[in-house]
Amino acid sequence: MDFLSIFGLKRQEGKRVTFRDTLRSIPIFSELGRRELASVERILHKREYSAGEVIFRQDEPGLGMYIIETGRVSILTDESHENMTELGDGEFFGELPLLDGGSRSATAVAKTACRIFGFFQPDLFALIERNPRLGVKIVLSLAAIIGMRLRAVNERVQGLLAPPAPPPAAARHSRPKKSDEGSRRP
Length: 186
Prior knowledge:
Strand order of the largest sheet: 3-10-5-8
CATH class: Mainly Beta
Strand content: 15-25%
């Protein structure tokens, strides 16, 4: 069996992996200490979804991000229902609304039965009020991740917009061999 599929625990090289270990593996929380992670854990909202159940829809108001403890989630575009990506145990999605509260840019659907934790903007803001230092750590990490993702998208877009590369010089100047010319009939 795979990670966290049995009671949220896994043995890895003789060590039990907990949900806190999963949180620590997420870049947004990777620099947090044990007490800081405990503070974050207390404000997470546990949700369970059945296979095929919609977690959120494109264009709905965004409330926060989601962390997959167990299961698989598909991220789809509403227009074409194209699967943009599939995520699994220990991965997260939907983080942009933590900063801007904007609407969802895609639809998230549970591909399998899932146990997911929500981290929502009102809880982040309350955490910032109670513990500004911790809140700033989280917001800066979140901003760095969003920046990295934006750069990756920009590179893909530039690749799509770039004119096609010209053929190599040898291909441009090659002529059919005489043996090829003689075998052709008009």
